[in-house]
Write a structure and sequence with these properties.
about 260 residues, mainly alpha, about 75% helix, rod-shaped
């Protein structure tokens, strides 16, 4: 009987020691496992944030590269626009001057040739693809350089102002169009443009259909007004072009695009 109880006591004692040892081991083990799990999650969180940060920075830089290309396109288009507006201003001043001459009948072909070009237009085409993407998708927040955002929005505002001045120019041309029928022969004026939409200097010497100086002077006044509007828009475009170039330089500096 005693022999049977001895193994049972030993087994019970061994079981108690095992449970006690297990309890001690589990406490340390749980803490270690918790710490390792926490560390793994935390490192994963940091890694994910780092990847997201790199991704955002990459997207931001891609937008800046695209924006620079748009601005370069603007500077090129503005250069063409400026030259056109200045040439047109000179042309219209010459037209008005010839119309007001007493011997204007000697310059009929040039008067008609220039008059037809009053309606010619080469508007500035704003390359706004990138900024529209930034605004429409709410991605302006991706641009961390707030000075870039501020300058970009100011630049866009100036572009819209130039577009409004061009609209005013077109409205004034409509007045010239209405009054032109009282001064120019429609067939002769129409003949100054060929089937390919190119201007042609008349080989004949077409005349104005009125000698009334008041009517001619009123039309010449509108031409002079259009001339000054064209010249003014060329100056606005020059200022806008300078802003575009400054913005390009600022973006290159802030984002080190040349490196």
């Amino acid at each position: 009987m005693k022999e049977n109880q001895a193994p049972e006591n030993e087994e019970a004692h061994s079981s108690k020691n095992g449970i006690s040892s297990l309890k001690k081991r589990n406490w340390k083990s749980y803490f270690k496992e918790f710490f390792m799990l926490f560390l793994a999650v935390f490192c994963g969180f940091l890694a994910e944030n780092y990847r997201e940060s790199l991704s955002v920075q990459k997207i931001e830089k891609e937008y800046m590269l695209s924006l620079v290309e748009d601005l370069k396109s603007d500077t090129s288009n503005l250069k063409t626009y400026i030259a056109f507006k200045k040439d047109k201003s000179t042309l219209m001043d010459s037209l008005a001057a010839m119309m007001l001459l007493e011997e204007r009948s000697l310059y009929g072909n040039q008067i008609y040739y220039f008059a037809r070009q009053v309606f010619d237009e080469k508007p500035f085409i704003y390359s706004d693809g990138t900024i529209q993407q930034l605004k429409n998708a709410g991605n302006l927040r991706l641009i961390q350089k707030r000075n870039i955002v501020d300058q970009l929005l100011k630049y866009e505002k100036k572009v819209r102002e130039l577009e409004k001045w061009d609209e005013n120019d077109n409205k004034t041309k409509s007045t010239f169009r209405e009054m032109g029928g009282k001064v120019f022969n429609s067939n002769e004026l129409n003949a100054t443009m060929d089937a390919n939409m190119k201007f042609i200097l008349p080989s004949s010497n077409p005349q104005l259909i009125t000698d009334d100086f008041t009517t001619i002077n009123e039309l010449a006044f509108q031409i002079h007004f259009l001339s000054k509007m064209s010249l003014g828009n060329s100056y606005r475009a020059e200022a806008l072009r300078r802003e575009a170039r400054k913005l390009i330089e600022l973006i290159h500096t802030e984002y080190r695009l040349d490196s």
